[in-house]
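Protein modeling request. Please complete all fields; requests missing the sequence field cannot be processed.
Requester role: graduate student
Desired output: 3D structure, token encoding
Chains: 1
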Amino acid sequence: MIWQTHEVSNQYEELADYSLYDSDPALREVLLRADADWAEAGLRAYGERLGKADSFELAEQANRHAPELRAFDRRVDQVDSHPAWHQLLALYREQGLVSMPFDNERTGRWSATMAGIYLHGQVEAGSLCPATMTQAGIPLLRREPALWALLGDKLFSRVHDSRDLPLERKASAWIGMGMTEKQGGSDVRANTTQATPLGAGGRGGEYRLRGHKWFWSAPMCDAHLVVAKTADGAPCCFYVPRWRPDGERNAVRIQRLKDKVGNRSNAGCEVEFQDAWGVMIGEEGRGIPTIIEMAGYTRLNCVIGSAALLRQGVVQSLAYARRRMAFGKRLAEQPLMRAVLADLALESEAALQVAARLSEAFERDDAPAQRGWKRIVMPAAKFWVCKRAVEFSGEAMEVFGGNGYVDGPMARAYREAPLNSIWEGSGNVMCLDVIRALQREPQAWQALLEDLAVLSGGDPALAAALAQLRELAARPAELEPLGRRFAQLLALTAQGCLLTRHAPAALAQGFVASRLSDGQWGRVAGALDANRLQVNAILQRALPA
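Delivered output (545 residues):
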């Protein structure tokens, strides 16, 4: 007997089969503003593909079936990932997003890359890890002639080659990075991994590496860039491939896979270098600045990735709230829920606008103001946007009630969100980086303040925030204990200025009024004075009905 105890009604799946690109007016405006309209057709097609139900299903499968370590008798360590993982990497690589900032000189290339990352990250974030690291490794490796001759065409390739083979036999390459060790964490200078020259050594020289890495993300990458110390204790950067030039596997031994909170599709592990072979890249003794240059690019992608999670949260929340009935009304018609949805929408577009402006600064790093955005706003945005994604992904999940806590896009986003805040420098590291940048680049700081003043359009609340930033920055001895407060104020001010210049008035005024004028804002999402906001305009902007 088949029992039928009730009729199913008022239940709705997460939104799928929609265009991530066409449903996002703010993103389209960003591309036009950056003269990146040449990329629109490709991004529109990618947004259509990513929005299909089967793309969300690939993301679900890749995260449900986590990578598995196979350690063979001959210590040939291999991590096997679900086919869905490779399909996602292939989709991403086909767009040219891995190399787009570096394989051409077209205006808007960084903005177009940002848009592609932002779209992909709304569906599956784990596959952004190898893509981000590979992209960030390109400028470093391009300065090493011998390695670039081997790698150049493989890094610029639009084909995903998942085979575990020597690079000479592959169509493309993925590059990872390895800094963190047990005893050091963010303190890379505490690393103990040793590098011994096999010959004369120096830049381009061969070395034998012995030591460990506590976090080794995407272990099946074809090579990793690694920090290790030479005999004199100087940290240097090394290219460590999965296969040695003699055709044998390199002695990078996987100890175990990490059991992570989220980011389940992407393998993370601990490794030991048992006299692994590597080549020094960059200047001898300058390993930390070399790898930090790479981290500059990956930190930008952390901001973009968090903006993507915020965007997916507001889209799914709005789509669900417009259908779900509660207490005789649709959720989206309930005043208190509207306050929460408006807060989500404000946060989402503010994150996109600052990610877009930072991407432009990477392309146009030719003036003090651009340096100000890249060196000073960048770590503040990485601190703030990534933190906001943690809180607001929880709020988006709560819109779905108990269903949101069950496996699905909202639960996965919630598990994913903390990673961007920790990865590539945790919150305190980012705040300290803001302070260091202020002190080292006073000209860039002054140019940034002038640029923000122009963008603010004379708004009184923004003018007051800029005055407070100037005052705090003028007291360097007192600044470090206030690092988080300063970084938060800088990020909010930058976002408010960008929205004032580029977003509709309802959204810009709502952001400034809630974030900078309301002393009660910020303790919890939705605790804003929605009576002072044009909520209908804000929600329509976020997801046109």
